Amino acid sequence: MMAATRNSLRGELRHDEPMARHVSWRAGGSARRLYIPADAEDLGAFLAGLPADEPLLFVGLGSNLLVRDGGWPGTVILLAGTLAALAIEADGRVIAGAGLPSPQLARRTARAGLTGLEFLCGVPGTVGGALAMNAGALGSETWEFIEAVRTVDRQGTIRTRRPTDFAIGYRSVRGPQDEWFVGATFRLQPGEARESQEKIRANLARRAATQPTRLPNAGSVFRNPPGDYAARLIEACGLKGHCVGGACVSEKHANFIVNTGTATAGDIEALIARVHETVAREQGVALVREVCIVGEGGVDHGH
Fold first, then answer.
1. Residue 302 forms part of a structural domain
2. What is the spatial distance between Cα 258 and Cα 26, in angstroms, rounded to a whole number?
3. Strand, helix or coil at 32?
4. What is the Cα–Cα distance from 248 to 215, expressed in whole angstroms?
5. Is 108 a residue of the active site?
6. What is the pLDDT of residue 299?
7. Cα-based distances in Å from 158 to 43, 97, 163, 272
8. Is the dihedral of CA 258, 106, 134, 181 positive or negative?
9. pTM for the whole structure
10. What is the CATH number of the domain that holds 284?
């Protein structure tokens, strides 16, 4: 399987790893292989030894992801718990690894008296995930603050790239094919630590009041269409509380689907499709899915 010898790798390789352990929906099939790299260089060595056509999936905290019940046919790279370094420099530059949880980045930069990333306190993923989807909340987006990123490709080459190398949009980032984020340099402005921390507290209180934080979910399922809210459209169709198997549209926030305890990935995907079709039929709006659905054993509904 690999050109690099197993002994030269410092990470952890697992076989037939249940992905329900690694996605926030707590549902779905297994990955044929899962690798937890020791650091970016170890990840590069591992990737360099894989076949060129190996299906690869990079996962952080799995908060925007559904792996179908048939599982992932190749290798998952798990960055959560690794690649999580953070360096805060005197000039407002912040260097973060892709595996660092976004809420940690928000809290630690706020504590250091830097402002801008408070919105990330309520984004339940990693820096890598925030980069990949241009995560945003409360009127701010991740890439507003990016000075440079580090990527790795299938050959294990690590590069530094600028924002101009990417097409960045609302919840969307397109860049060089077969490159994945391993870190980023943020440029932040000085602010009042107390003010930033208060903003974070208010953001978290608002999130707890409006989102179903107690049940497994993957955050917003659909992007907000221009000038409207996906949750409003879904609620207008009377879909709050609607279930397929153990998956239900949250009573608290209609753009969230929760796992009530027994949901399969198939239940969740079928409910996503039903919501999409109902809103299209009754509201005339084709919602665009924000969560990523991968793997085998499901039906791609093309949205």
1. no
2. 10
3. strand
4. 11
5. no
6. 52
7. 10, 13, 16, 36
8. negative
9. 0.88
10. 3.90.78.10
Same domain, 117 and 183: yes
Of 34-43, 103-112, 196-205, 283-292, the one with minimum mean pLDDT is: 196-205
3-state helix, strand, coil in the chain (%, to 5): 30, 30, 40
Q: Choosing from 179, 220, 250, 269, which is the catalytic residue? A: 220
Q: Is 290 a catalytic residue?
A: yes
Catalytic residue, from 93, 171, 223, 274: name it: 171
CATH of the domain at 115: 3.30.465.10
Confidence of residue 33 (pLDDT cuts 50, 70, 90): very high
What is the pLDDT, as a whole number, of residue 6?
56
Which of these three, 47, 78, 109, is where a domain ends? 78
Q: pLDDT digits over 123-140, tens only?
A: 888 999 999 989 878 788
In terms of domains, do 69 and 90 share one? no
Q: In terms of domains, do 38 and 136 share one?
A: no
Let me know whether 21 and 108 are in one domain.
no
| Residue 301: band (very low, low, confident or very high) from pLDDT cuts 50, 70, 90 | very low
Of 50, 78, 106, at which residue does a domain stop?
A: 78
DSSP state string for 212-224: -TTS-B-S-SBPP
Tens digits of residue pLDDT in 251-284 = 999 999 999 999 999 999 999 999 999 999 999 9
Q: 32: domain range?
A: 8-78
